[in-house]
């Protein structure tokens, strides 16, 4: 019976590419694995897969009775509803340890670095497995995406070293130019619904007795949202009601200006203001230098709850 590998709900490029790259490694090591996904892919991920000739992983949302590896998360809120009925064989991640538990020992690769694909690159090196050209290209794109082309505070020397080594394998001469091409695709929002944008890179987190939804949209120019904010806010209110959430926060991140506009819908805005030592105006605020949800947003929200 095959083992399935997948990333979090509302998958980003790291979780999709991570499923593909880890599945190749596991298959090479003699373990039959299939990459899957929990949701629709983003335009950026579609660009990456097309660029390197890869198929979109199978959509699968139920894993009861299956053996699985999970990539890029370890929180129940980002897992399939029946994850506790599956056997988790391993976790490959670069976030804080979440609230998933297992009844049996597991393989666990969790590193304080910029991208899950960097962790998977280390696993390839550890096992002495050669990375195929197409998979190397996808992995370097995932790392460039998660580290915002090395601008994110989550980026480490391990990530930059991995990109350089992967670029050599993939035959990519100017990986920063490829990264900018990718972010231009990521910035294309015309024609997308407010729900599609709000949930493009959206995660829910349990904090104390409350749940929060935090999404992020990374673009090269925030002006693309000038005529869309009312629609984004209206949909955020629906997301909050549908999920029974305390707050929904969307980061509109400008990778050129290196900061984020926070949009907030909350039962108590003062908690958000205290977290970031700011004053919201019309339920929004600019946070200079904030590029990382993982390192610059979630750790500051958590103590408020």
Walk me through what this model shows:
It catalyses: diphosphate + H2O = 2 phosphate + H(+). Its cofactor is Mn(2+). Keywords: Hydrolase, Manganese, Metal-binding. Pfam families: DHH, DHHA2. With 305 residues, this protein is an alpha/beta fold. The strands form two sheets. A six-stranded parallel sheet has the order 3-2-1-4-5-6. The protein has a five-stranded mixed sheet with strand order 7-8-9-10-11, sandwiched between helices. Helix 1 (13-28) runs antiparallel to helix 4 and helix 2 runs antiparallel to helix 6. It folds into two domains: 3-184, inorganic pyrophosphatase (n-terminal core); 194-304, DHHA2 domain (Diaminopimelate Epimerase, Chain A, domain 1, Roll). It contains eleven helices and eleven strands. The protein is 37% helix and 21% strand.
Question: What's a quick, concise take on this entry?
Answer:
A hairpin with a 4-residue loop joins β9 and β10 (259-266). This protein is 37% helix and 21% strand. It has helices at 13-28, 43-51, 116-127, 133-146, 157-170, 175-186, 194-198, 229-243, 269-276, 293-296, 298-301; strands at residues 3-6, 33-37, 58-59, 67-71, 87-93, 107-110, 202-207, 210-219, 247-254, 259-266, 284-288.
Primary descriptors:
305 residues; alpha/beta; inorganic pyrophosphatase (n-terminal core); Diaminopimelate Epimerase, Chain A, domain 1; 2 domains; six-stranded parallel beta sheet; 11 helices; 37% helix; 21% strand
